[in-house]
Amino acid sequence: MYSITSESSHHPDIINLIAALDRYQSELYPAESNHLLDLSELTEENLILMVIRDQQLTAVGCGAVVLNGDGTGEMKRVYIDPTHRGQHLGETLLAALEDEALSRHCHTVRLETGIKQHAAVRLYERCGYEMRPPFAPYTADPLSLFMEKALVVDVRLAAL
Questions:
Q1: Are the beta carbons of 147 and 107 closer than 8 angstroms?
Q2: What is the DSSP letter of 24?
Q3: Cα–Cα distance between 83 and 93 in angstroms, integer?
Q4: Helix, strand, coil: what percent of the chain each, to 5?
Q5: Which backbone phi and psi does 39 adopt, to 5 degrees?
């Protein structure tokens, strides 16, 4: 059994998971194509950060949504430890992040991921994300893919 809870970006478990993610991405892409965001620089108002823990309370995954204040958010730092993959933790984590984003008046979530992260792209597609052009602050990059998901069908409903 796994649990998903909110966590601080300064928590050692989050720091360790993000360090593992950074090592993984640094092996796949050159520095200019690695859009690594230091979550500790963001305020709690603008950040949704969640951690997945196993039965022993070991942190095995994390993910974040950065809220932009305009009803959109950006999915960042999604990572599941390789030894815990294949158990639908990614889908569960994305659903939890999206639910919290929606409760904080976010109607659309966007993301940037790399072309070599096939499992991540499949996860996002299974969860309803669709390809889109680059969005600010990104520019076109042959090693990047950009995706988006509307959390509500009618954005006017997000204001309710």
A1: no
A2: H
A3: 16
A4: 35, 30, 35
A5: -65, -25
* CATH number of the domain where residue 17 is located: 3.40.630.30
Strand duo 72-80 + 108-114: pairing: parallel
d(CA 76, CA 22): 12
Q: What percent of the chain has pLDDT over 70?
A: 96
pLDDT value at position 160?
A: 53
Is the Cα torsion angle 120, 64, 132, 90 positive or negative in sign? positive
Distance CA 127, CA 153 (A): 15
Q: How far apart are CA 96 and CA 98, in angstroms?
A: 5
Total residues found in the chain within this entry? 160
What is the tens place of the pLDDT at every residue in 44-55? 899 999 999 999
Q: For the segment 27-83, what is each residue's pLDDT rounded down to a tens digit?
A: 999 888 888 888 888 888 999 999 999 999 999 999 999 999 999 999 999 999 999
Instruction: Give the number of domains in the chain.
Output: 1
What is the mean predicted confidence (pLDDT) over 102-128?
Answer: 96
**Boundaries of domain holding 89:** 3-159
